[in-house]
Amino acid sequence: MKTMLLTLAAVAVATSAAAQPSGRNPDADGDGKVTMAEFQAMQPGRFFDRLDKNGDGQITAAEAGDGPGARIFTRFDTNKDGAVTKAEAEAAAAQTFAAADLDRDGALSEEELVNLRQQMQRGRP
Ligand SMILES: [Ca+2]
Ligand SMILES: [Ca+2]
Ligand SMILES: [Ca+2]
């Protein structure tokens, strides 16, 4: 379970990085903490919309593409209907956020984000 969540975060971060080569700070208001709203604004919304090529509100394996993307999205499909809905992606992101928020203050500090990134790097296949 933990690996799946970290993989989602890795995908979202990787997708964001691909779209924004200069990198983007998820801390939109610059207060040093990433709230759930800021986290959700960064992921999964942006990468979800990009992957949902036909705009029907769900990502199929074909839309996710071949390779690691297809395997990852199959695992996000929690109800096993062959498509990842935005709700499924958001639920996975929310769980990722909760797992990363070590002190449970509802926001990710710089330290918590660094920790999350380190976990993603270790968990990467
Ligand atoms: Ca679609
Ligand atoms: Ca599904
Ligand atoms: Ca926190």
UniProtKB/TrEMBL annotation:
GO molecular function, one term: calcium ion binding
Gene3D superfamilies for this protein: EF-hand (1.10.238.10)
Entry keyword annotation includes Electron transport: no
Ranges for domain EF-hand: 88-123
Name of a matching Pfam family: EF-hand_5
Presence of keyword Coiled coil: no
Signal peptide segment: 1-19
Alphabetized UniProt keyword annotations: Signal
Annotated protein name in UniProt: EF-hand domain-containing protein
